[in-house]
Amino acid sequence: MRMTKWTKARRINNLAVQPPLFYFNFKEFEDIGTTIRGSRVVIDVIGRISSIGPIEQINIQTGLIDIRDILIENIRGKTLRITVWPTFLPLINETTILKISKHSLVFFAFSSLELKSYNREPFLKTYSATKIYTDQIHPHIAQYLEVFGERNSPVNVLQPRVFQPSKPSKMTTPINIALKDLITLEPYSNKD
Q1: Are 114 and 140 in contact (CB under 8 A)?
Q2: Which of 129, 142, 153 is nearest to 46 (CA)?
Q3: Which of 58, 70, 88, 164 has the highest Cβ tally under 10 A?
Q4: pTM
Q5: pLDDT at residue 165 greater than cutoff 70
Q6: What are the pLDDT digits (tens) for 69-122?
Q7: Contact 112, 129 (CB under 8 A)
Q8: Distance in angstroms (rounded) separating the CA atoms of residues 61 and 133
Q9: With helix as H, strand as E and coil as C, how does the chain read?
Q10: Phi (first) and psi of residue 102, to 5 degrees
Q11: Which residues contact 113 (CB under 8 A, 6 or more apart)?
Q12: Which residues on adjacent β-strands are paired with residue 70?
């Protein structure tokens, strides 16, 4: 919807039908990697929480922040990684999820996740417009619980990622050089 200065808003009394409070456009996991176009692609997904990772710290331009990876699974058993950024970490309560998963499947619905790719593998991450629906009696989640049936599958706890330190590059000994000599360097003819 686009609002302009010519847009008029009118109050409608006695609505015959209640407008929906939310709208989802859930994507099939198989289709997600094929939709990377442009700078910001947002996607809605729903799935069973199959694994939850530890809270880890990463370094960004403003300093260290906490993130957590979770894996969600669709009815076909395909999993998808979602990286949860600090604003949404309180919604991903590991203790509660593990407790519920002992006797029931745990489903979350995600609206407006940002699609990213790492090593040609798609993954999703939260950002400012993301909404996470965790209530197991939410209409969309209840539908998926019904489709999945009475299966019970506990949530796995992921191990922390092991980051391989990059190998130091071969550094040459610095040399002192005058600015006038630096300006006259000709790397193509002198192999400087």
Answers
A1: no
A2: 142
A3: 70
A4: 0.69
A5: no
A6: 999 998 888 999 999 999 999 999 999 999 988 888 899 999 999 988 878 788
A7: yes
A8: 29
A9: CCCCCCCCCCCCCCCCCCCCCCCCCECCHHHHHHHCCCCCCEEEEEEEEEEEEEEEEEEECCEEEEEEEEEEECCCCCEEEEEECHHHHHHCCHHHHHHHHCCCCCEEEEEEEEEEEECCEEEEECCCCCEEECCCCCHHHHHHHHHHCCCCCCCEECCCCCCCCCCCCCCCCCCCCCHHHHHCCCHHHHCC
A10: -70, -25
A11: 42, 43, 44, 45, 82, 124, 125, 126, 127, 130
A12: 52, 82
- pLDDT tens digits for range 15-65: 666 655 666 788 888 777 665 555 678 889 999 999 999 999 988 888 899
Q: Read off the pLDDT of residues 141-164 as tens digits, 9 standing for 90 and up.
A: 888 888 877 666 788 888 887 665
Q: Supply angle C-alpha 113, 53, 86, rounded to 5.
A: 50
51: tokens are 């694994």
Token representation of residue 77 = 């058993």
**Distance (Å, whole) CA 52 – CA 45:** 17
| Euclidean distance between CA atoms 33 and 135, whole angstroms | 28
CATH homologous superfamily, domain 29-157: Nucleic acid-binding proteins (2.40.50.140)
Report the pLDDT value the prediction gives residue 19, as an integer from 0 to 100: 59
pLDDT of 184 strictly over 80: no
